[in-house]
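Methods: holo model generation. Sequences were used as deposited, without trimming of termini or removal of tags, and paired with ligand SMILES retrieved from the corresponding compound records. Each pair was processed once, and we did not select among multiple samples. The sequence and magnesium ion SMILES for this entry were:
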Amino acid sequence: MVGSVPNPPARPPEVVVMVGLQGSGKSTWVARHLAATHEIVSKDHWPNARHRERRQRRVLNELLAAGRDVVVDNTNPAPADRAPIIEIARAHGATVRAVYLDVPLHICLARNENRQGRARVPLVGVLAALKRLVPPSADEGFDRVDTVTTGP
Ligand SMILES: Nc1ncnc2c1ncn2[C@@H]1O[C@H](COP(=O)(O)OP(=O)(O)OP(=O)(O)O)[C@@H](O)[C@H]1O
Ligand SMILES: [Mg+2]
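and the model returned the structure below.
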């Protein structure tokens, strides 16, 4: 075709791994910053399903195979939670970024208390995540780690 424009060089897909306690504001941040560009994967989308972890990995694989940018919106508190996501991302040649919501416990709890019904997480759940929480680090294999704070 005359005057056809060559395709732009292929850009590898990006996987964003959210990290933060329940109520820290991950889903709010994703809605504000990534909803227009990234597919949102979250085990919260299947609250009653069995094998949610396996299902999430399968969906992540499928989206990356289709060349999509993806954000994984779970608490992902420990390196062991993040390692399988990083591994899948790498297998697809994707870049991997962590976004860490570094929000004090009392603020997370207050935000959680303001939630209604099922959206409100039991306190033990937040404390269990706190116990496991290790801020993400480039050593785990992230190309980039962004930290979001509550600010003044
Ligand atoms: N920057 C902010 N300032 C004030 N309130 C916020 C902010 N971000 C989120 N919130 C409020 O805090 C509550 C929890 O936010 P959100 O649902 O985004 O948290 P989450 O980290 O996704 O929690 P979960 O892990 O349980 O899904 C919501 O009611 C939201 O409106
Ligand atoms: Mg959320």
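Helices lie at 26-33, 52-65, 79-91, 105-113, 123-132.
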